[in-house]
Amino acid sequence: MTEAKEIKITPELLDYLSKLAKIKLREDEKAVFLKDLNRILEYFSILDEVEASDVEPAFHVIGLSNIARDDEVGGEPLTQDEALLNAPHKEEGYIKAPRMV
Amino acid sequence: MVKISHLTAKQIASLVLAGSLSPLDVVERYLERIKKLNPTINAFINVAEEHAKRTAEELEKALKKGFRGKLAGVPIAIKDIISTKGIETTCASKILKGYVPPYDATVIKRLKAEGAIIIGKTNMDEFAMGSSTELSAYGPTRNPWNLERVAGGSSGGSAAAVAARMAPASLGSDTGGSIRCPAAFCNIVGLKPTYGTVSRYGLISYACSLEQIGPMTIDVEDCALLMDIISGRDGFDSTLIDYKFKWDPGSVKGLKIAVPREFFGEGTDERVADLVWKVIKLLESNGAVYEEVSMPLARYALACYYIIAMSEASSNLARYDGVRYGLPCNLSLPWHEAFSEVRSKGFGMEVERRIILGCFALSAGYYGRYYLKALKIRTMIRDNVLSLFRKFDVIATPTTPFPPFKIGEKIGDPLSLYMADVDTVVANLTGVPAISVPAGFVDGLPVGAQFMANYCREDILLTIAKCVQDETKFNVYLPREAAI
Predict the structure, then answer these.
(1) With CB atoms 3.0 to 4.6 Å apart as the test, which of B81, B102, B247, B394 could cross-link to A82 if both were Cys?
(2) What is the secondary structure of B183-239 as a DSSP string?
(3) Does the beta carbon of B365 lie under 8 angstroms from any beta carbon of chain A?
C-alpha cells in the first residue's frame, strides 16, 4: 500500500491548467470544473491502493517497435490546393496564422 | 416480398450482384427511411444524399462491366469521426463544422473498393468523449427502442441507424467501449477488433493507444464480412500488426468461458446480470463450459483508462487551433490568445474537461502519480487478462452494468456517466478483441453480453455470437420505429 497525500485542484491550479491547455474558462465554468475535476481526481486516487513500483509501464500493449518505411513518397500526396482546402485564412498558397510574438 | 430495409448487408449485396436489386433503388429506399425516421432519432449528423445517389449510379455502370464487390450496393453509415473524402466530417464538434476531408480513411477506401455506398455520417459524443451520444454539438441521438432513452455512446448514431434500419451496417470507433455500449443498448452486434488489426489512418484521434474502428451490424455474418474487409495492413498506420482476419463458423463445443465475478456484483443491475448469465447457460447447453473466476485488478481499470485516455486526448487535441482547419481563429490577436479563444468557442464542456485533466495528469509533479501509475497498472491488468487466456478461450461479462438510461439522467454528473464504461475498458487497456451480443431485454430495453478473447481471436468471438444468434434470433427483433 502506498501512502499518498490528497491532491486538490485549487482555483490557481485550474487557471494554470487552462493556460497549459489553451482553453479559456468563464467564471461560471470554473466553478463547475473545480467541483467535477476534484470529484474525478478523488475517484482516480483508487490507484493509490496498488503497489506497482517495480512494474514496467505499458505505453502500448502489443509489443510495438518502430517501423520506418523506405525514404520514398508513399502513394499520392495531397496537392497544395487539397492541403489548403480547409484552412480558414490563406493567401497566395500559404496558410495565415496569428502572430507569434 | 421482404422489405429492402430489413435485409442484411450480405443479403443486399447478393441481390444486387444477382441483378434482382439496383443500387439506386437500395439507396433511395434507405434515404426515404432516413428522411422519415432521422428527425426523431437523430442518428445522422449529415446525410450524404447526393454522394450516395451518384455512387449508386456509377456502381450500376460498373456492375454492367462485371464488377463483383462483396458489398455491392450496400449503404453503410459512418461515424462522423472517420474521414470521408468530400463529405463533411465534424466529430460532432463545433470546432470542425464545415471541415471536408480531402482524403478517405483506409477503412472507407476498403469499403468503397467492395462496392459499399457511404449513406451518411452518424452522430456521436463530441470527439468520441462520452457514453451516451448526449454530448454532441448536434443534439442527442434517441434510442430507437425507447425514444426517451440514450442510444449509448460514443457511436450511438451508428448503432441507432442500424437498429432503426436506416442503414444495414455501420462503422463505429471504440476507445473505451464506444462500439460495444451502443450496440448493447440498441440490440445489434458490435465488435472492437484486436488493437492494431484495423488501420486508424483517417480516424480523427482521441486516444491512439486505445481506439479501434470496428463494425456494427444487424447480425454476426455481416460483422464478419465487414471485419474481413476493413482489417489488414495499409502502409499508413505504423501500429498495425501482421494479421489477416479469418472466420469459419464452428461450434462452441468445448470452449472454456471465464466468468469474472467482479463484473456481476455491486453496481451491476441484477436484471442485466441475469440476462448475461442466461446467455452463458445457453452456451453451456451447446457444449461450452464455464467457470467463475476472479479478476481483482478489474476494480482499477476504469480509473486507469480515463487517466490514459485524457492524457492522450490532451496531446491529440492540441492540433485544433483554427489555423489549418476548423473554426477560424482571430488573426488580430496574439497566437496564445487566438488559440485559446477558438478552442473555448469550439470545444464542448466534456472535451475541455478531459483536455484539462489530461494536461494535469501529464504535468510535471503529477505525471508519476497519475499517468505513469496508470500505465503500470495497465501492465498488471494485461498480465491478469493474459493469465486467464492461458486457461480459458473467452471472458464473459455484461457489456454495460445497466440498461439504457434516460436522456438527461446522468448528464450533470460526469463520474456517473463514466461508469457506463466500467465493463468495457479492460479490452481497450489490454488491446484484446471484444464483442457485444444482444442478450435480451429489461422492460423492453436492450441489454448486451460482452465476450473478450485473446489477441487476434475474433473468430472465437464470432462463433460464440453466432451460437447466441442461432438460439435467440436476436437479429429478427425490430424496434417499433423500424418495424414500419
Answers:
(1) B102
(2) HHHHT-EEEEPPTTSB--TTBPPS-TTT-EEEEEESSHHHHHHHHHHHBS--SS-TT
(3) no
